[in-house]
C-alpha cells in the first residue's frame, strides 16, 4: 500500500489532499501542530490506514521522530512527503515585526528544508517516490503586500527546482504546487497588524478563491505526472502568463498595490 505523509494535515489543503489520497487507497499520515485539528481530519478517514502525528515542522527532532513513526507503520514506505505546512504573513514589509519575519522563514522555508533533508533516506529507499512542496502563486512574481511570504515561496520554488535535478539520480521525483488564493484557515491572518484579514483583502481586490478540492486533484496530478511546477487556479495561471509575457505590466500593478 502506498503511503503519504502530509504536514499541515489538520485543515485546508492538507485535509483535502489526505481525503483524496485516502479515498484512492493510500495510507495517510497526518502531521500538524494542532491535535484537535488532527482528530477532526482523522475522523473522516479509515482508522486502519491513518495515523496522527503532533509535530512542529521547525523542529528537526520532531521530523526525525515522526518520519520514524510513520515509516514504521507503513512498512518502511514513504511514497510521498507532502511538505505543506505554512503560515500567511501580509501587510507592509516595513511594519512587520522581526518575530513575524522569523516565523515565516522558519515555518515556510526551514520547515520544508528540514522535511526534505530528513525524509531523503526514506524517499530514496521507496521506488518511484515523490517530494511534493506547497509553493504559491506568490512564488511566481514578488508580491507587494506579502513580501516575506512571497520570498519564502520563491525559496521553496528554488529548492524544488534544485532537488528535481539533484535527486533524479536517487529515483526521487520533486514537484511543487503553486496555488493562487485558497480559502483556508491561513487567510484568517491579519494584514500588517490591522483588524482586516487576508481573506477580506482578497475579496476586496476582486480575486477568486480556488476550492481546496481542486488543489487536492492538482496534488494527485503532480505526484503522478512530470510537471515540475503545477499552477492551481486562475490567479496563478494569469500571473505566470503575465510575468513571462508582460513583466512591465505586472511591475506597474505591484507598484499600485
Structure description:
The protein is of the alpha/beta class. The chain has a single domain, classed as Rossmann fold, CATH 3.40.50. 48% of the residues lie in helices and 14% in strands. The chain has 9 helices and 7 strands. It has helices at 12-23, 35-42, 60-73, 98-124, 147-166, 198-204, 212-224, 234-245, 247-256; strands spanning 3-7, 27-32, 50-54, 80-83, 130-134, 173-179, 229-232. It is globular and about 55 Å long. The model is unreliable at 201-206 (pLDDT under 50). Its EC number is 1.-.-.-. GO terms for molecular function: oxidoreductase activity.
Distance between the termini: 48 Å
Shape: globular
The CATH class, by name, is Alpha Beta
Number of DSSP helices?
Answer: 9
> What is the share of helical residues?
40-55%
Mean pLDDT: 89
| Poorly predicted runs | 201-206
* CATH architecture label name: 3-Layer(aba) Sandwich
Order of helices and strands: EHEHEHEHEHEHHEHH
How much of the residues is beta strand, in percent? 5-15%
Q: Helix/strand/pairing class, anyone?
A: alpha/beta
What is the CATH superfamily classification? NAD(P)-binding Rossmann-like Domain
Strand order of the largest sheet: 3-2-1-4-5-6-7
**Compute the gyration radius: what is it?**
18 Å
Our count of domains comes out at: 1
Number of strands: 7
Amino acid at each position: 500500500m502506498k503511503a503519504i505523509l502530509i504536514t499541515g494535515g489538520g485543515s485546508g489543503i492538507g485535509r483535502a489532499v489526505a481525503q483524496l489520497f485516502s479515498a484512492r487507497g493510500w495510507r495517510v499520515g497526518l502531521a500538524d501542530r494542532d491535535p484537535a485539528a488532527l482528530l477532526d481530519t482523522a475522523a473522516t478517514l479509515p482508522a486502519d490506514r491513518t495515523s496522527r502525528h503532533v509535530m512542529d515542522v521547525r523542529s528537526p527532532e520532531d521530523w526525525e521522530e515522526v518520519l520514524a513513526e510513520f515509516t514504521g507503520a507503513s512498512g518502511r514506505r514513504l511514497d510521498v512527503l507532502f511538505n505543506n505546512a505554512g503560515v500567511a504573513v501580509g501587510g507592509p514589509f516595513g511594519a512587520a515585526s522581526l518575530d513575524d519575519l522569523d516565523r515565516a522563514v522558519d515555518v515556510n522555508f526551514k520547515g520544508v528544508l528540514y522535511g526534505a533533508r530528513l525524509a531523503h533516506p526514506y524517499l530514496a529507499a521507496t521506488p518511484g517516490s515523490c517530494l511534493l512542496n506547497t509553493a504559491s502563486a506568490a512564488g511566481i512574481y514578488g508580491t507587494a503586500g506579502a513580501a516575506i511570504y512571497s520570498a519564502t515561496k520563491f525559496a521553496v520554488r528554488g529548492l524544488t527546482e534544485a532537488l528535481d535535478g539533484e535527486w533524479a539520480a536517487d529515483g526521487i521525483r520533486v514537484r511543487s504546487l503553486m496555488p493562487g488564493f485558497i480559502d483556508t484557515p491561513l487567510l484568517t491572518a491579519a494584514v500588517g497588524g490591522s483588524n482586516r484579514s487576508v481573506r477580506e483583502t482578497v475579496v476586496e481586490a476582486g480575486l477568486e478563491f480556488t476550492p481546496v478540492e481542486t488543489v487536492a486533484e492538482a496534488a494527485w496530478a503532480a505526484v503522478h505526472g512530470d510537471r515540475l511546477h503545477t499552477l492551481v487556479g486562475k490567479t496563478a495561471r494569469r500571473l505566470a502568463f503575465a510575468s513571462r509575457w508582460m513583466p512591465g505590466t505586472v511591475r506597474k500593478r505591484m507598484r499600485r498595490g
